[in-house]
Design brief:
Elements: H1 3-26, H2 44-49, H3 54-64, E1 69-73, E2 79-83, H4 86-95, E3 100-101, H5 104-114, H6 123-137, H7 140-168, E4 171-173, H8 174-191, H9 206-223, H10 229-236, H11 239-268, H12 277-283, H13 289-304, H14 306-320, H15 322-333, H16 341-345, H17 348-360, E5 367-371, E6 375-376, E7 382-383, E8 388-391, H18 393-396, H19 400-403, E9 416-420, E10 425-431, H20 452-469, E11 470-474, E12 484-487, E13 489-492, E14 497-502, H21 507-514, H22 519-541, H23 545-548, H24 551-560, H25 564-567, H26 576-582, E15 606-607, E16 610-611, H27 616-642, H28 646-662, H29 667-670
Parallel strand pairs: 2-8
Antiparallel strand pairs: 1-2, 3-5, 4-14, 5-8, 6-7, 9-10, 11-14, 12-13, 15-16
The protein binds protoporphyrin IX containing FE.
Protoporphyrin IX containing FE binds next to α13, α14 and α20.
Length: 671
C-alpha cells in the first residue's frame, strides 16, 4: 500500500470519528466561560497557551463564569474542575471529606521526596500522623520554643542584614531574604538544625540547596507533558531523576544522622521546654526513623515557602498603602519591643492586614483533591470518579459576590469591627474571621493547615521587627507592578528588590542608639558651653566692663547671644540661629557669675594660649571669637541631640573638641 493510499484510508476512519467526537463534546454544552474544547485534546491548546499564567487564567475563567466553576478537559479526557464556589469547597473539604483525597497519582509523584509524610498520605495513616502532630503543635512549650527561635532569627540575622542595607542604601531582594529567614526557622523548629541560610553573604547552604532541588524536581514531575516520562527517566536513572535520587538520599542520610544525635541528647534531657518537633516525636515513643523523617520533611516543606510568600506580598501591599502601614505601626508601637504572646495575639489590625494580603495573594493559590467516586457538586457540576476538583483561593479572593465591588482594594477593615456593647464604643478593633470555605487560604475542614497559628505568630513578629525600624521601599520604578507566579506556592517573579529606609518614627531613636557612643561627647560639649558662658560673663563683668559701655561692643554682645538662661537650655531643640534671634534682650537676664575659674584652670583672662589684652579692638575680636565658639558648640550639641546629622557631625566635632579642649587651640584658629 502506497503512502497516499494509507492516508486516504486513515482519513476515512478519522473524519467520521472527528465529527462524532465534536458532536459529542458540543452536546455537553460547556459553560460560556470555558475555553474551546476539541475531541481527544480537549482544551489543551488553551491550557498550553496559558501555561505560564495558569493561576491568573483559571481565575479569570472562574470570575467570568456565572457558577464560578469551570471544567477544563485536557488530553484524553483528563478532566479538571476549578471552583470558587464556597459550597463546593465545603463539600469536597468537609462534607464529603472521605470521598475526596490526595489521590494515588499525587502520592506516587511525591513519594520519593515526601515518603509517607503527612502531606502525602490519606486515610488512617494520615489520621494517625495528624493526631500525633496536632498534639505536639498545641503544646505551650512548643509555642514558647517557636517564639524564641523566631525572635533570635529576627534580632540576630534579619534586622542586622536590613540595617546594613539601610546604612549603605543597597538594594536587597526581600523575597530571597524572607525565604532564607523562613527556611532557617522551620529547620530549627522541625528538627533543631540551623542551616544558617540567612547570613550577610547570603550563602548557598548545602541543606537548603538539597531540599530545594528535591522539592523542585518532585513538583516538576506534575508538569511533564507525558506523565509517564519521569518514570522512564527514573528507571534509567538519568537527568533530573538522577539528581532527585541523590538529593533525596542526601536528605534522608542527613535526617538519619540528626535522629541519632537527638536520641542520644534526649536520654540526658529532663525537660521538653526548648526542643524541636523531631525531639518531641521521638520522646513520645515514635522512634521509627522513616516515620519521623517523613513527618519532619513534610513540615519543612509546609513552613518553608508559605510564610515567606505571604510576607513578600504583604510588604509590597504596604508600600502601596502608606495609611494602612501607619495604622499597623501605631499598633506595633503600642506593644513592647519583643512582644509577648498575649501582645502578639492582641495585634488585631496587623492580623487583619495579613489576612487581607493573603486574600489577594494567597501563598497556595490553587489546591485540590481527587474524587474517589462519582458525585455531583452543590452547584450541579457532575463529577466522575478520578476527576480532580480544585478549589481556587486566588480567584475566590477576587470574587465580587464574596468581597463586594471593592474587592480589588487592600482593606484590612473588612476583617474588623469596633469593639463595644453596641451603644458605647471603646474604640478597640476586634477581628472578625471569615468562614474558611469562602477563604480557604489555609485549606479548611479536617485537613486545615496545622501550622496556621504558628505562621501568624511568626509573621506578626517579623512584621513588628521590620516595621518598627524600617520602611520597605520597592526599588522598581513607580507604577511597575510585580508579577504573581506560582509553583505550588506563590512567588513574585524575579524577586522583590527593595531599599530599606529607616522608619520616620524610628530615625531619631535608631540614630540615638547608634550615637550612644557620643554620650560622653555630648556631656563634654555641654560642660564646655557652661564654661564658655561663665568666661563670657566674667569677661564682661571684669575685664570687659569698661568696654561694655562702648556701643559697638554692646551691639556685638547683644547680637552675639549671651543669654545663658536660653543658650544653656540645651535640652530644647534650639538652633544657633534661633538663639541669636532670641537674645536681643539677654543682657538683663544673664546669670550672675559665681566668679569661679573655668575648668582646666584657665584664667578668666586667658583662653587657650592667648592672653587677653584689654583693648577695644582686642575685646571685640575676643567676643566675636567666643560667640563663634559658642554657636559652633551649640550647633554640635543640638546635632547630637536631634541625631539628624549626628553621625557625620559628631565625628567632625569630635576632632574639633579634641583640638579645642585638649590642645587648647581656640576654634577661630582651627577654622
Ligand atoms: C502563611 C502560611 C501558610 C499557609 C498559607 C499554609 C497553607 C496550607 C495549606 C493550603 C495546606 C493544605 C495543603 C494540602 O493538603 O494540599 C496546609 C497544610 C499544612 N500546613 Fe500549612 N500553611 C502555612 C504555614 C504553615 C506552617 C508555618 C506550618 C508548620 C510548620 C504548616 C504546616 C502544615 C501542615 C503540617 C499541613 C498538612 C495538614 C494535613 O494534611 O493534615 N503550614 N497549609
Amino acid at each position: 500500500m502506497s503512502i497516499i493510499e494509507l492516508l486516504a484510508s486513515l482519513s476515512l476512519l478519522l473524519v467520521p470519528l472527528f465529527f462524532y467526537l465534536t458532536r459529542n463534546s458540543r452536546s455537553r454544552a460547556p459553560s460560556k466561560s470555558n475555553p474551546k474544547s476539541y475531541p481527544l485534546i480537549g482544551s489543551s491548546v488553551a491550557i498550553f497557551a496559558n501555561r505560564n499564567r495558569t493561576t491568573q487564567w483559571t481565575s479569570d475563567l472562574i470570575q467570568s463564569s456565572p457558577t464560578v466553576t469551570v471544567v477544563l478537559r485536557r488530553f484524553l479526557d483528563d478532566t479538571r474542575v476549578f471552583t470558587g464556589n464556597p459550597a463546593n469547597v465545603q463539600h469536597i473539604l468537609k462534607t464529603k471529606f472521605y470521598d475526596y483525597e490526595k489521590g494515588s497519582k499525587s502520592r506516587q509523584t511525591l513519594f520519593d521526596f515526601l515518603g509517607n509524610g503527612i502531606f502525602n498520605i490519606d486515610g488512617d495513616s494520615w489520621k494517625f500522623q495528624r493526631q500525633v502532630s496536632s498534639h505536639e503543635f498545641n503544646t505551650k512549650s512548643l509555642r514558647k520554643f517557636v517564639e524564641t527561635v523566631v525572635d533570635t532569627e529576627v534580632s540576630q540575622r534579619l534586622i542586622p542584614i536590613l540595617s546594613t542595607a539601610a546604612a549603605n542604601n543597597t538594594v536587597l531582594d526581600l523575597q530571597d531574604i524572607l525565604q532564607r529567614f523562613a527556611f532557617d526557622n522551620i529547620c530549627k523548629i522541625a528538627f533543631g538544625h540551623d542551616p544558617a541560610y540567612l547570613l550577610p553573604d547570603l550563602p548557598e547552604a548545602e541543606f537548603a540547596k538539597t531540599f530545594d532541588d528535591a522539592a523542585k524536581i518532585s513538583s516538576g514531575r506534575f508538569a511533564t507533558v507525558l506523565p509517564f516520562l519521569w518514570k522512564i527517566k527514573r528507571f534509567l536513572n538519568i537527568g533530573s531523576e538522577k539528581r532527585l535520587k541523590e538529593a533525596c538520599s542526601d536528605l534522608r542520610e542527613f535526617a538519619r544522622n540528626i535522629i541519632k544525635e537527638k536520641k542520644q541528647e534526649l536520654r540526658n534531657k529532663p525537660s521538653l521546654e526548648t526542643v524541636d518537633l523531631l525531639s518531641r516525636f521521638l520522646n513520645s515513643g515514635h522512634s521509627d526513623e522513616d516515620f519521623v523523617t517523613d513527618i519532619v520533611i513534610s513540615f519543612i516543606l509546609a513552613g518553608r515557602d508559605t510564610t515567606s510568600a505571604a510576607l513578600t506580598w504583604y510588604f509590597w501591599l504596604l508600600s502601596q498603602n502608606p495609611e494602612i502601614e501607619k495604622e499597623i505601626l501605631r499598633e506595633i508601637k503600642d506593644k513592647s519591643e519583643s512582644p509577648v504572646y498575649e501582645e502578639v495575639k492582641d495585634m488585631v489590625y496587623t492580623h487583619a492586614s495579613l489576612c487581607e494580603s493573603m486574600r489577594l495573594y494567597p501563598p497556595v493559590p490553587i489546591d485540590g483533591k481527587v474524587a474517589l467516586r462519582d458525585d455531583v457538586l452543590p452547584d450541579g457540576t457532575v463529577i466522575k470518579k478520578g476527576m480532580r476538583v480544585l478549589y481556587h483561593p486566588y480567584a475566590m479572593g477576587r470574587l465580587e459576590m464574596l468581597w463586594g465591588p471593592d474587592w480589588e482594594e487592600f482593606k484590612p477593615d473588612r476583617w474588623l469591627q469596633r469593639a463595644g456593647d453596641g451603644v458605647s464604643n471603646d474604640g478597640k478593633w476586634s477581628f472578625v474571621g471569615r468562614d474558611p470555605y469562602s477563604y480557604p487560604v489555609f485549606q479548611a475542614g479536617p485537613r486545615i493547615c496545622l501550622g496556621k497559628d504558628m505562621a501568624f505568630l511568626q509573621m506578626k513578629r517579623v512584621v513588628a521587627g521590620i516595621l518598627r525600624r524600617f520602611k520597605v521601599v520597592p526599588a522598581a520604578e513607580d507604577g511597575v507592578e510585580p508579577v504573581f507566579v506560582s509553583f505550588a506556592t506563590s512567588k513574585m517573579e524575579g524577586g522583590f528588590p527593595v531599599r530599606e529606609v529607616l522608619s520616620d518614627d524610628e530615625k531619631p531613636a535608631c540614630v540615638k542608639s547608634s550615637l550612644s557612643g557620643y554620650e560622653d561627647e555630648k556631656l563634654l560639649i555641654s560642660q564646655r558651653l557652661k564654661v564658655l558662658e561663665r568666661k563670657l560673663h566674667q569677661f564682661a563683668s571684669h575685664g570687659g566692663l569698661p568696654f561694655m559701655a562702648n556701643s559697638d561692643c554692646s551691639e556685638e554682645a547683644a547680637h552675639g547671644g549671651l543669654n545663658a538662661g536660653e543658650s544653656l537650655d540645651y535640652e530644647g531643640s534650639q538652633t544657633a540661629e534661633q538663639t541669636g534671634e532670641d537674645n536681643s534682650s539677654m543682657q538683663g537676664d544673664s546669670p550672675v557669675s559665681n566668679g569661679s575659674l573655668p575648668a582646666h584652670g584657665m584664667s578668666s583672662a586667658s583662653f587657650g594660649k592667648h592672653q587677653v589684652v584689654a583693648t577695644n579692638e582686642n575685646l571685640n575680636g575676643r567676643l566675636e571669637a567666643l560667640e563663634f565658639d559658642r554657636n559652633f558648640l551649640e550647633h554640635a550639641f543640638n546635632s547630637l541631640q536631634s541625631g539628624k546629622e549626628g553621625l557625620q557631625f559628631g565625628a567632625f566635632i569630635y576632632l574639633f573638641i579634641y583640638i579645642y579642649i585638649v590642645l587648647r587651640v581656640p576654634i577661630e584658629e582651627i577654622v
